[in-house]
Amino acid sequence: MIKRTRVQEWSKGVLLMGRFEWFGTGCWLLHHNGVGAILELPPYSPDHQESPATKAYNVCKKRKIDVKYILCTHTHIDHFNAKTAREMQGAFPQAEVHLQRGFEGIAGMLNKVYFFDHDSKLDIGGEPLYLIHAPKHSWTDTHVIFKGTAITGDWELNTLRSAHDDKPRYAVPKEAKLAAIDKMSRFEHDYKYHIHKVFSVHANDRRENVDFTALMHDTKIDKAWF
User: What is the CATH number of the domain that holds 27?
Assistant: First the structure.
């Protein structure tokens, strides 16, 4: 039996369309004025779970949303899957794919791909959407900021530590992590923008009414995160 995922509105214009295998990675729809962006391209098990692309297509068709962008927070295998990416482009052939430059080696099979190095500002129906490169959990970490909400990928919050610190192949050095946290702590000032909600892309951390700058300062402290 194919499991159908339930759509949840986490915030106005921010919909969680489902969590997909292997690690329950969320696939999100960000939308405003009938225009949208799909966030995350996770793997799935076709024997018992509908594909993220099918889910996204049906959700957008029902809500009459024109998908303008396809996005992903980082290159880890539970977030970017080549099969899902191709299916998502098949469902939304008009959509542009915007990814941090570090995706270049694994996203070459896609069409309409735009790579950014540091930051990118997009527009969804007149509402700004920011993609901010800030490596901490991985080298390609991208914070997605939309309608006062920061979707922080797999960032470990309230600590400098990260899950891959003991894995040389994946670990981000302390100096780079500190620079990324400092960059995010300046975001509200630099962009004259107020962030009041923080969601993890896995949908396992949901914070409302946050002081984002203070949260970033606390994240610089080296303390146990588990």
Answer: 3.60.15.10
